[in-house]
Amino acid sequence: MEIRYYHRPETLDEAAELTAQYEALVLGGGAWVRNHKKYAEHAVDPMHIEQLRHIEEYSGGVRIGAMVSLREMETSDILAARYGSSIRDALQHIVGVQMRNIITAGGSTSARLGFSDVNTLLTALEAMIVLRKGSEELHVPVEAFLRGHEYRKGVFVTHIEIPFLQKNGAASFASIRRTFTDISVLNCCAVFHDRDYREIAEIGKAASGPHWHISIGSRPAGPVSAYEAAELLGESRKPEESAIQACLEKIEDEMSFGSNIRGSGEYRKHLSTILVKRAIQEVME
Amino acid sequence: MNNRNGKSVNKDRRDAAYIHCTVNGRKREFAVQPGEMLLEVLRREGYTEVKKGCDTGSCGVCTVLIEGKPVLSCSYLAMRADGKNISTIRGLEAEASKFADFLTATGADQCGFCTPGFTLSVIAMKRELKNPDEMEIKKYLSGNLCRCSGYEGHLRGIKRYLEASHDEQV
Fold first, then answer.
1. Do the beta carbons of residue A165 and residue A191 sit within 8 Å?
2. What number of other Cβ atoms are within 10 A of residue A192's Cβ?
């Protein structure tokens, strides 16, 4: 890729200004820049913006800077303490340690790739994507973000906020891959949130009370939530066997799966119930 | 000359940027094109021990250490290396040679093309993980491909190397 002007701002305001002014390409990890043969007149590299490089707790959850590497997320004590092994399980098979030292939380989310493990994880964790649009800061639910809400030229991801699961909450991520480092044939994340749904007005979803959230990705299309199926699990972290069975049947009915080089739609449909069952069982433990 | 966006670009007038880094303990200045990957710069500057394999971020052959962390130089923007410490296999000769003895003793080293990148990953793993078990070793090194062997020899060599290093420290 050719880049004419490479900007290295040190503050978020400066980055926002440059991005808006030049409709610049905002870099994530930059690993895929090589694959893009196109030309960018202006690229903004946010790596020198200190506040985008940390994982830290805030009052309602954990905030991850866009420039945090996937390896930093995978090995973060804060994330492990708050979300168990789900974060590590979702990240540990992505290409290799050397690539995960490069690619970033912001870049992985922004790319909105169908096979993304990160976005399946963040969907079920009900994460918020924090965007910068000129001088404005926008908070968009990850599901709305993945559908293109508010994300366009001149707008870029600054943080990802994952709410605490609260009290009895737990999360589990599962994927099927042909080899360690290959893209998922199918991935899923099941989370029991021991708190109210935050409202997702953008896609018309809201509820109250403890609830399950199940997301399935790499279908091969991107992650979607199985809302109706998750509702069948009720408000307990230990649903009855019959409720789990009903949930799995609903997933088979509700979800659409496609075919590609890694597997047929039918195969993915079959895998989906097994993977989701494993994830639910892990959350119940 | 027109690019895809239809804007006129004069390649000759395109500014090179200068980055300053320390490679194997020596301070260096490199002229790079923004958008260029570190692998290209290192090889152009004579660090041909950094191998170019798949050039798509899959094989691990181009691994170098940046601030002690293993990264794929084919997927790392050269501009990001500004101000950083870079180690290639030549910068870690003593440690690499020690590991090579274990690797050759188990017959794992064959064509040798993947060895520099692989060795750097092993050294980084040794520094990062404490007493890794077999699964942890496999997970840490899964981004390094070898097309000659089936990895069994590698795994035996690594375990013996880690044991020997551990014994030395104790």
1. yes
2. 26
